[in-house]
Description:
By secondary structure, this protein is α+β, with helices and mostly antiparallel strands. It has helices spanning 2-24, 31-37, 62-81, 110-117, 121-124, 145-151; strands at residues 44-54, 85-90, 99-105, 128-138.
Amino acid sequence: MKLKICLSLTFLMATLSFAQQKKTEKSKFNQELATSLGADKYGMKAYTIVMLTTGSAKIEDKAKMGELMKGHMTNIGKLSDEGKIIVAGPFLEKNKENYRGMFIFNTKSKEEAESWVKTDPAVAAGIFSYEIFPWYGSAALPLYLKHHDEISKETP
């Protein structure tokens, strides 16, 4: 019984030691990549988040609303292609703040982010309003976009 406990404890300690070693091992730092992404010493950078909220416009015409939402999606694609927007998407549930969706813009300037969000036809028409917040996140965040086309069968 003691041998079994001793072997179990030895195995557990070896496993924990290996896990700690893996945790402390750092992947090879890539200065060129960090510089190209604008990373600070922590691998992070400033972005701007825009929270889209329910706007004041009430458009009952379904064709007009469809046209505005198509323009909204086209504008997101354009801003993404230009490297300005790196995250965009709707919220899946209603919430008390009336947040409808969000953008993460690749800028630390609230003014620049606002100029970009104003190019959205749904914002211009009052379907969406917005709130702007500075945000600090991984400088590698934009890299996921290059793989998105590989995993999506259709464009919304």
